[in-house]
Amino acid sequence: MYRVAIMGASGLAGGEILRILANHGGFRVSLVTSASSTGRPVRQAHPHLAYAYRDLTFSPEEAVLEGEWDLIFLALPHRKSAPWIRRLMPLLEGGRRLVDLSGDFRLRDTEAHRRWYGEDPAEDLRGAFVYGLPELHREEIRFASLVSGVGCNATAATLAALPLVRSGLSEAVLQWWFECRVGSSEGGSVPNEGGMHVFRSRTMRVVSCFSHRHLGEVSQELRIPEEAMSLTVTSVEMVRGVQCLLSAPLREPLTEGDLWRALRSAYGTEPFVDLCPPRPGHMRLPDPRLVLGSNRALVGFSLSDDRRRLLVGCAIDNLMKGAAGTAVQCANLMFRLPEEQGLIMPPAYPA
Known about the structure:
By secondary structure, this protein is α/β, with parallel strands linked by helices. The chain has helices at 12-21, 42-45, 81-88, 110-117, 134-142, 152-167, 197-200, 215-222, 256-267, 320-334; strands at residues 2-7, 27-33, 71-74, 97-100, 130-131, 146-148, 176-182, 205-208, 229-235, 242-249, 273-275, 297-303, 309-316.
């Protein structure tokens, strides 16, 4: 079994990696670090995992420099990963691998990174990472030693639009309007006034009206100019989950047959992407509750009667397919393990 280190393991994404690896079989957790929880047992931060990690405690971050691992996940906040990756680079040899869940290396272009995330902390390393969405970069990931994480909203938006792009049907789209409805876990585990239950519960709060930093990833990966897209993010009454709806006015009418062929061609062999059924009507667009706790993505569409307005939807669990699940999926590919290993968990429904 390969030894795994997790930095930032006391957070939400780090906890999800621990949950996945508890029953993985190919990876063994050998080291977990936390800047805020050093010396505390893992079961205090993640009581639901007490059965799997009874004796594991959080080590100081410096412990990763000892190199007693084959694979390291960085589940650190934005701008915290890059300095650590620079320190870890001398250790990334002899088959060691790194998957970074932060936004520090998602964007390949330095100017794009500065526009969405601020000053670039590691411009010289920017081109060394493979963007970690297997549905786009499976073969590159297999041979990579450095893989970046994916934005949860970017994942849902990209998977909604990808069939149109790959099939050439994107030429019929006049404008790309994405709307993401998201749960509170997108805000992370650090308390803040905007995320407190007393202020957040029973609200539908629009937090980004026209653009969101994940839009840079969508533009990069689908090669659609940013000015041709908008991305609205609305916080809704969920703990976890993303529902992304792509509203696309069409230059020329399409048929449902065109769209079904595009979706089946894009996702017919994908292990973690499922298509919504055409009937009943209320099931045509995906509900995040149908994928919670899993690494699955659900994609569906609806076409207007005049065939000139299209709605495509994608639902994911933001902590799984939008973060930890995809990270482990990438790690499986990097170590030549079965891509689905440790990730064959059905969604929890109802949730």
